[in-house]
Amino acid sequence: MGLLSRTLWPLRQSAIKTKFHMSTAAGVATSPAQATSHPRTSPPSPSPNTLNPLSKTMPPGFKASVAHLPTFPLPPTITSSASDHALGNALVDAWRRDGIIQIAMDSTQRQLWADAKAASRAFFGRPHAEKAACVDSQSYAGYIASGEEITDGIVDYSEIFTITKDLGVEDPRVRAGWPGHGPCPWPDAGMKGVMKRFEGRMGEEGEKLLTLAELGLGVPEGALTGYTRDGWHHTRVLRFPPRNATNGKGKKGRGIGSHTDYGLLVIAAQDEVGGLFIRRPNQDEKFANWEKSAAGLNEDDDSWVYVPPVDGVHTVILGDMMQYLTRNYLTATPHKVGLNKRERFAIAYFHEPSFQAVLKPLEGGCGGMAQQSADIEGVHYGTHITNMFMRNYPDRITTRRLVAENRYSLLKRPELRTMCATTA
């Protein structure tokens, strides 16, 4: 794969206007017309899967087109320069066209990913009893066994270690019983150190991407990043068991069913095996996961796009709150995971608003979006994500305690709804 070298970015604005080429997963340049085409218009049909070398890693039993995605390197800092504005515009255009982008890892990120992948393999290789002991009754952090997670009423076969905000029992929010707040039940200090370093660097990338998105959307500084002060960032460390030709419904085995994610950005790294499918933005598909669950959406139709694994990149998709904030100018990306012939490892980092944030649609920008109405109630992120956890893990000890102690009612309290965006 030929990634852009760091010397090619930032680009001069004149160069961007005349010849904006980006390398792709297939090593094919993206033309200026492709880079700026309307995202709701379907791109030309790709070659049949049998002729496309990128389709070789696609899990058996699936029919899908294959993504050819541009890869963007990020600058060390965002300065609101002309080149940063151009990059922000390019990111927004790519999200609107493809629903997903690729970000080039730097050398430090490559090493962090290698370390995190090794720690993941080591953890999932432990005896089941050791893994099953890594749970907490107050937070949704810790181990999730294969078959425990439910999407649209059907079990998924992913095996997961979830890392939420790691709060000690003396933290005031934990003592007050806030839903989902509590310790992360690490199996050992070694895994904790590796994953914390990985998560910290992903958080830096998330802030850069949100800052660039603000530039690309034409909204004030802080319109997005103002919500991420004390963000409810978390990580899912994932293992997908091999199922060979058993991809299908329910007990036949699937990785993760069709769904959208709940926050702002999902930044993921996947190994070489492959299994991720997404849906491109489509003007005719209507969903609002904060109002009604989008789980199971179009699970079985033919409009899915396979995202082949590419060495040295993160994939970035958008979550529900980005869709809500931009009034559907950007939309959350439906995605699912199929089981492959070999076990597969991935890590997904979620760059999120504060648990206490009440989000309201952005003012201006976003392609001429209408001004915000003062009477919009907004979406409370803490309630939105708590609903998701309870829906996905109805029998988990955390859900049972949350219900038994009536913790859900705390979400209405003013002290859990104290944050709005701060714009400069």
UniProtKB/TrEMBL annotation:
Biased composition (Polar residues): 31-40
GO term, biological process aspect, one: small molecule biosynthetic process
GO molecular function: metal ion binding; oxidoreductase activity
Pfam families reported for this sequence: 2OG-FeII_Oxy (PF03171), DIOX_N (PF14226)
Coiled-coil annotated residue ranges, if any: none
Residue segments, region Disordered: 26-57
Alphabetic keyword roster: Iron, Metal-binding, Oxidoreductase
Family: Belongs to the iron/ascorbate-dependent oxidoreductase family.
Name under which the protein is recorded: Fe2OG dioxygenase domain-containing protein
Taxonomic source organism: Parachaetomium inaequale
